[in-house]
Amino acid sequence: MYCPKHATRGAKKRWSKIEYCLRSQGISFDFVQSEKQEGVVRLMDMLISNGYKTIIIVGGDSALNDAANCLMSVKKEVRDTITLGLIPNGIMNDFAHFWGFKENELEQTVKWLKERRVRKIDLGCIRYTNAKGEKCHRYFLNCVNVGLIASLMNLRKQTRRIFGSRTLSFVGSLALMIFQRLDYKMNIKINSDVIDRRVMTVCIGNASGYGQTPNAVPYNGLLDVSVVYHPEMTQLFEGFYLLITGKFLNHHSVHPFRTDEVKVNEAVKAMVSVDGRLMKTPVGPYKITVQQEVLNFLIPS
């Protein structure tokens, strides 16, 4: 399933390169294309109902999240017969990067997919109540962000569409960050610890969490959690530097945890994002858990 980057040029040229790599390695395939989020869900439902056993998403974190949630909506005996794969092609490709898939290394990616090394992976799940009072849930492969970073990730996605460059989009997001709220009143329970204070951001990672949970892996049945208290402004920029350089946990305002459940009892006006996509803020408390080895995924050799 091909999911072109939104509002970017060169979608046909990009697909031509991917198609050439697939055909040159003797891979037969059927092609469907989705332009919008609703299209991913509709096409996944169609592919599943038509008996496809290997579904490759050519897209980013959001498209992969939609695909995973579609698979989790079917019966386990059906889901267990289906394997999900990924060719990174999104505005954000953090889950692909976790496994070593790179946007500019198409031949290597296709070679790995052809080897068909399947691994059962974990999924995180956020359970919440929406504004209508309905009980809802959403699965995630990478992470849930609560607070400032959720806002920043949303800004980064928007600026990435404008600038194209990952670095420029991050710098642009930092510039716009001065207009964002920097801390939130939260009450969070992690294991036996209760955090009841003002917090800048929380990341609950099933994988690397855009650098905020760098030690998390989606196959140990646990979630890594990074809670960031409100640092001074100079320390804030130091924190972003450590985030970019992969040393986020070294910042003294970052408090790491490992758990199988996080209860957010209160997070006043804090935005929430799931795999980089902003979701409507839950009403009242919500819970984040992990489900172990529930999805077949193609990984590198």
SS-based structural class?
Answer: alpha+beta
Instruction: Please estimate the helix content.
Output: 25-40%
Q: What coarse outline follows from CA principal-axis ratios?
A: globular
From the alpha carbons, calculate the radius of gyration and give it in angstroms.
Answer: 19 Å
Please report the total strand number as a whole number.
Answer: 13
Question: Number of DSSP helices?
Answer: 9
Give the N-terminus to C-terminus distance in angstroms.
23 Å
The mean pLDDT is: 86
Order of helical and strand elements: HHEHHEHHEEEHHEEEHEEEEE
**Parts with pLDDT < 50 across at least 5 consecutive residues:** none
Description:
With 301 residues, the chain is α+β, with helices and mostly antiparallel strands. 33% of the residues lie in helices and 32% in strands. The protein has nine helices and 13 strands. It has helices at residues 11-24, 37-49, 61-72, 76-79, 94-99, 106-115, 148-163, 166-176, 233-244; strands at residues 54-59, 83-88, 117-129, 135-140, 143-147, 184-190, 193-205, 223-229, 254-259, 261-267, 272-274, 277-279, 286-299. Strands 1, 2, 3, 4, 5, 6, 7, 8, 9, 10, 11, 12 and 13 form a 13-stranded mixed sheet that branches. β11 (272-274) and β12 (277-279) form a beta hairpin. The longest helix has 16 residues, at 148-163. The radius of gyration is 19 Å and the shape is globular. The mean pLDDT is 86.
